[in-house]
């Protein structure tokens, strides 16, 4: 599926992550996802028959931590689980992904959860219950500041209370530790304090358009011109300038099946997509971010990190669920460059 040169580059980058000694820290959410498939979504007051209930680990932050751990990074997670059976399930799944959960807290009541209904056309309804995620506080963050200060990079999203997110960013920013913010669930009006304390922004093309209040068409990338010096660079120079005025000199913009763009200083680098037979794209964006965090901790450039993240996230799209679809370094290598037995 990939050339020998690509395989060599992927193997080298994964090897550097596996052999790295610096630690990723992710502070945020962990949820249990309850998913049922139906022929049609129910109308108000209607009951419909559904398929088997799937209970899977989720939560954006937990997904990001699990993805990083699966490919061999050293990872610590901060956050809250409830005092229910789901707490044991979530912690066990993170531990199986080689994530250190020893500093995660426990709050009275249920763990975070989502209830998802998916119809035969792929349309869905999602109900999110924050549960214990809503109990993550600045006091909890301060009590675990040593974990943050020992990290090489901090990953944040916005499924946790904003005050706790900002407290985490402040601790790492004051220590000179790079902070990567995934503006998801999307918040258009990010606090100026948070912008000033986060170093790298990760958004998709729709979020970027909303953030900068520009037409979505201006973010679209034509793969045929992306490697040239024409429209692509003119287009992304304008976006880079707008993002810098917003507060970010460094950003990664994911474009779904069209790849990604890394904005770093005055440079805009296009990352070509990796095409696979997708089964379920749930959690692929989180897998991408987990790989970026792993790359930063291992000393990789943002371009190399995003290049690798495209392969890791594409692999995740070939499986069901989020964390359940994430692969180890060896599984990912074998998928793209199968080892054939000698006859």
UniProtKB/TrEMBL annotation:
Molecular function GO labels: ATP binding; metal ion binding; ribokinase activity
Gene3D superfamilies xrefs: 3.40.1190.20
Keyword set includes Cytoplasm: yes
Entry's localization field: Cytoplasm
Cofactor annotation remark: Requires a divalent cation, most likely magnesium in vivo, as an electrophilic catalyst to aid phosphoryl group transfer. It is the chelate of the metal and the nucleotide that is the actual substrate.
Principal location listed in the UniProt entry: cytoplasm
Residues that bind substrate: 31-33, 59-63, 159, 286
Residue numbers annotated as active site: 286 (proton acceptor)
Annotated protein name in UniProt: Ribokinase
Gene label: rbsK
